[in-house]
Amino acid sequence: MMRIRHVASGRLPQPHCRNGLLIKAGWSMRLCMVLLHAFFVGTLYFLDSDFRREIYLHRWYAVLYLIFVVTTVIQYWYTAGSNPGYVVDVQEEDQAETRMKSAMGRQSICSTCNVWQPPRSKHCFDCDTCVLQFDHHCVWLGTCVGHCNHCRFWWFLLEEVALCLWTSAMYVLTFSRTKNTSTSLHTAAIIILSIILLLLLMFLITLLLFHSYLVVTNQTTYELIRWKRIPEFRGLPDNVKPYSKGCVRNIYHFCCTLHNTHPIEEIPSRIILERRSHSSFLEFLHFHCC
After folding, report:
1. Are residues 90 and 132 in contact, defined by beta-carbon separation less than 8 angstroms?
2. 235: closest CA among 269, 279, 281?
3. For the CA atoms of 208, 211, 212, 218, what is the dihedral angle to 10 degrees?
4. Nearest 5 degrees, angle CA 205-CA 147-CA 161?
5. What is the DSSP string of 154-182?
6. What does each C-alpha distance from 50 to 99, 194, 203 come to in angstroms?
7. What is the pLDDT of residue 96?
8. 3-state DSSP assignment of residue 290
9. Which residues have CB under 8 Å from 273's CB, separation 6+?
């Protein structure tokens, strides 16, 4: 398998945003995300006096919760500041790959970046640059999700789901404990915040399950949504995931391989894809033909 690697520049490649407003918007969104975490945690502390007493009686519980909050916020910043993998920041390993581009099933030159787009890459109009294995541009992160940071993004979603579930449980317990003794305004605030948290939890769980499905099938959001608009997917069976190596291998490559190199993935022949369209569950878990 051919690979292209990152240019050894000694610095983290940055997105080539169209203007300074996008950069400022990205930092503003990141600050809002941190303040949002602090708001839901701090509000519960000030609204419930029994909760404050429980903290002093069981300090280990409060310390464990705060550690998890800080860990989730750090994971958020780690993901938001990560490099998704930009086409302009990679170079070919040797000149032989240039002669073999025509064999990859895609000969695309980005009209904006004026660079060759490897398979699965796409130009992001928010960052104004081409991204390797482009998934989507995340407004909450202020950057793209691509080949190099999709795994970090998945772990961030998992931590957010766990934190939101934990915080929602504390709000529900606070409501059940204070509904008969607190004022109507106090109760209304708890109910409103609990509903908001539950809606966020449902959204995060849906997003986590969706990206878990993408990992298992080795797909991206863009490929799933724009299937019929991608040239190399035209004419392929609808129930076949062309880049899938089997469930087990997909998860292994997603979680356990280094992301400082980008594999140029080839779509298997039509015969193999037709065979996969009738594969059994065990064959889906681990394709032996790859």
Report:
1. yes
2. 269
3. -170
4. 15
5. HHHHHHHHHHHHHHHHHHHHHHHHHTTTS
6. 71, 18, 30
7. 39
8. coil
9. 236, 237, 240, 242, 267
Q: For 113, phi and psi rounded to 5 degrees?
A: -85, -20
3-state secondary structure of 239: coil
- Active site positions, annotated: 138
**What is the rounded distance in angstroms from the CA atom of residue 137 to the CA atom of residue 262?**
19
Q: Could you read off the pLDDT of 39-88 as tens digits, one per residue?
A: 888 887 777 777 777 777 778 888 898 899 999 999 999 999 888 988 88
278 Cβ partners below 8 Å, 6+ apart? none
* 1 burial type by CB count under 10 A (0-12 exposed, 13-18 middle, 19+ buried): exposed
Q: What token pair was written down for 118?
A: 């490897």
Look up the pTM and report it. Answer: 0.80
Is beta strand 90-92 parallel, antiparallel or unpaired with respect to 122-124?
unpaired
Tokens of 119: 């398979």
How does pLDDT run across 4-49, given as a tens digit for each residue?
444 333 334 444 444 454 555 567 777 888 888 888 888 877 777 7
